Amino acid sequence: MARNLMATTRRTAAFGAVGILAVTGLAACGGDDSAGGGGGDGKTIALLLPESTTARYEAFDRPYFEAKVKELCSDCEILYSNADQDDAKQQEQAEAALTNGADVLVLDPVDSKAAASIVSSAKGSDVPVIAYDRFIADAPIDYYISFDNVKVGELQGTALVEAMKAAGNESGDIVMINGSPTDNNAGQFKEGAHNVLDDSGYDIAAEFDTPEWKPENAQNWMDQQLTALGDNLVGVYAANDGTAGGAIAAMKGAGVDPLPPVTGQDAELAAIQRIVAGDQAMTVYKAIKPEAEKAAELAVSLVEGEQPEGDTEVEGVASFLLTPIAVTKDNIKDTIIADEFYTVDDICTAEYADACAEAGLS
Fold first, then answer.
1. Beta strands in 11-75 (DSSP E)
2. pLDDT of residue 34
């Protein structure tokens, strides 16, 4: 997948004048479609997130974003929506946000292709669009904020190879449990993983694109593979922590012992605990706070009529790309805990007390 990253090139995104529309009301809560509308002057920012199955969106992205907006702009209104993995619902939420006076859309799409119509509607209303976390190809987005997603896949692939070798397996079968086929980022994770795994000396015995990123879909597929692969399975590439959890549940249910190394992404609490316990080899930590806060800063700048420059370009779009970090048992303390993403008490519950002590966390 072409990325066309040109780190030395900066550009100012061009977009139509941002109108400050009349709105009142409270920001939407939870999964509500939107709120606001009415009379009174205001600055309105719509945050449209894709789903709640992945813990990060409700637990981190939303609160970090909202807190930063309120810090920078006390009179800014936030229209919040979560699409629950339904692209038609997200389309309706976006149209409602535009109707209710959104001056900027911060959009993390359910379906990266389908979201192009949302961008077109926004542009028709002279409302700029920030693609948040997931790129929206072939659409006139104004900015893109995310991580280097090919690098994420490369970190996962590299960590998997290292873990398989550490387990004494120089060859054997691996399976790849990729992300949702409707998520542009999932294709980039897969690309990065293949960059490493294709020439690793291990055989990719089977590969699966997980519908809607659902752990149960990953678990059901993994159940089917275990009979066919038998003792030849030496590693599992899982694109995120949810699919990793599904794969691990399938293997435990089938009595696989010891478990082969399994990758992940998002640094979910359950995944960190699995890493401490030795059930999962690694996760990719993407520091969500700076990502969400950068999106908030940019959205506030736009409603105030500014046109910031990006740090780089992705397919001609002014972009900000943050650096992902591979997390294993050896560096949880220096990353997850040091950043206060989780505390030792969060991780080291009674079930994991002995494993935490062995890992030097408590």
1. 43-49
2. 38
